[in-house]
Amino acid sequence: MPELPETILDPAIIANPGPTLDLLLEHAPVFRDEVMGAWIITRYDDVKSIFADDRFSRDRRRGQHYIPPAPGSWAEKLDDDATSRSDGEEHRRWRARIAKGFTPRAVARQESQVRDVVAQFGEPLRGRTGVVDLVDVFTNPIPNTVISRISGIPPYPGEEDRFRQIAQDVIRRFITMADEENIRRGERAIDELAEWVGKLADERRQQPAEDLVSDLIHGNPKDPMSDTDIVMLVASLIAAGSETTTLGGTHTLRFLLENPEQLALLREDRSLSRNAVREALRFGFGSIAGGVPRFALEPIEFRGAAIAKGDMVMVSTLGANRDRSVIDDPDRFDITRDTRDLLSFGSGPHYCLGANLAMQEMACMLEEALDFLPEDAQLLSDEIVWETVGLIRRPTTLPVRFA
Questions:
Q1: What is the pTM of this model?
Q2: pLDDT tens for each residue of 37-50
Q3: Is 272 exposed, middle or buried (0-12, 13-18, 19+ CB in 10 A)?
């Protein structure tokens, strides 16, 4: 058997996970990373089964790398009570309450808001010349502006800019294996966010508006949401949906610019836009240990591996989405392939509640980009700046020469 890596935390593996993933998929589908102190699960069927297995909890406090927040802080409340880590009946209760914010009427309103926000950032790029950083002016500001708009944060000059800055820092609190400096920075942002959203929730109790916070407050008379619940939910939306949507939108544009024949195909048939986004999420979004970590609630034998109670298990959606038992030629970027059964947004009872909103945002971003990107737009790949936080390697710039 080929030699397995000591750890997937190797910077070279984080930068180019494909070859290592193929090695694990074939020879070590349940891989013990002693440096991380975690099991890495890569095969499609295994990842899908763990998503639905109540023996694995999402409670991040059980992990050996967990850094407790300050006592009495909003970060502590978030870890104690947030829907993002609940399981079983409590998780089902949260999903039922949150569903009141995603009724057909609310979804239609949110789709309109998404299109308005995307157009707001796309319109200034029409007719641009020179080199444009699409992360800075397009894919980065859109997701948090969308969350701000649908939540009801007042769209006054400067307010949404500040909200985006806070949201970017909140995300750092939730990145697996992030260092303490990033975690504490995220905790300070959560405190500021909580004060802001708490005031908004108080206002909406007295005077409802056409926004998500109002829907959640007034849509659950039998199980009302407190101000703390609302803060938790908005923070969870930011943690789960802003950075991932920015990265998804950025990588979608990157892969299309790197594969001009696929971009030309999309220009000819825009009905492929959503499938192009799903293929981009499959092709190279995230790290080997992507997804939310799980923690064993009891001793579990899994594919012959003895997983001890409390062990961290990382379900690799990136691995599952290139498993050759379900994906042909995974190294080929193909926007026409069947992407319906991919696991990018999870599966089963923990399927991402914000998946439809995220897909709406990324598809709208892509369609808008088709309108402002010149036919001869050139990605300056060698000039992309990358940042690694924990297990995530992200492009912080996407320089494109317009003309």
A1: 0.86
A2: 899 999 999 999 99
A3: middle
